[in-house]
Amino acid sequence: MLKPSRGHLPAMLCCLCVLVLFSSVVVWAQLGFNSIKTVHIEVKYQRDVSEEDARTTADNLQNDYSYLSDKLGLDFKKRLEVRIYDTVGKYLRETKQNRPWRGAIYRRGVIHMQPVQALVTRKIFEQTLSYELASALLDLTARKGCPRWLRESFAVYHSGEMAKLSVPIGATLGYFSDLDQDIQQYPHPPQRDDVHYVLGLSMKYFIEQYGEDKTFSVYKAFNGITPIQVIFKKVFKKDFETIERTWANYIAAETERFKER
To answer: Which range of residues forms the domain containing residue 135?
Structure first.
């Protein structure tokens, strides 16, 4: 096999980079996205999505972001990208999902959305945006040690999803880490609905026990160094084990006894 000379190698690498860049541009052009920007949000929407739907999405997210940023003390360093697909099928292909139950999903810095009208028809438009935006903003704390159960508890509570869910038939939990296990084990409804209910109930517990301001301040306390046990002690003025035990008792009291389905 012939080997390229050293003089030809940089030129070949340059051509390869240009080819990769061109391919990316072509793929993006084929998807056919337009764009609307607010101060903190950029909505990219496919050509068959109406500008009105895109603007409604952008305004909704911007308003919710202003609220969340103020409450949590967190800020995006750049605009959050949101992509609205013009069919559910395209959304599923791009996000590599098999089921359309989740109206949008936050992944790697981008919120991917089903068509707005699909979410409106299912009456989950605002709920979906609230959940995914909260997930995106709290992703900033994930890199600093905030556990997934604590982030998703807020996202579920903030979205208002609990109002549409039924009380689980029995929820036996002893440790906060049990929530992380349930999140991983049950990715789809109907079990996922039960997990979300308990997550939302967990945030309700913290707010009832310690107040909204103190509860929401816990997210900004994560710094990538201090363990959660120390953070909880500092914010809530109680030992982690005590908080965990009273939380477990609260969940048990608020849910029904387990019965075989």
So the answer is: 32-142
Q: How far apart, in whole angstroms, are the C-alpha atoms of residue 198 and residue 187?
A: 14
pLDDT in tens, 213-259: 999 999 999 999 999 999 999 999 999 999 999 999 999 988 864 44
Q: Which of residues 127, 142, 157 is at a domain's end?
A: 142
Q: Is residue 9 part of a domain?
A: no
Q: Which residues of the chain have pLDDT under 50?
A: 1-6, 8-30, 257-261
CB atoms within 10 A of CB 188: 12
Alpha helices, DSSP H only, in 122-239? Answer: 125-142, 148-159, 177-185, 191-210, 212-217, 228-236
Q: What is the spatial distance between Cα 86 and Cα 53, in angstroms, rounded to a whole number? A: 11
Please choose, from the candidates 228, 234, 102, the residue with its C-alpha nearest in 3D space to the C-alpha of residue 177: 228
pLDDT digits (tens, 9 = 90+) for 168-193: 876 779 999 999 999 999 988 999 99
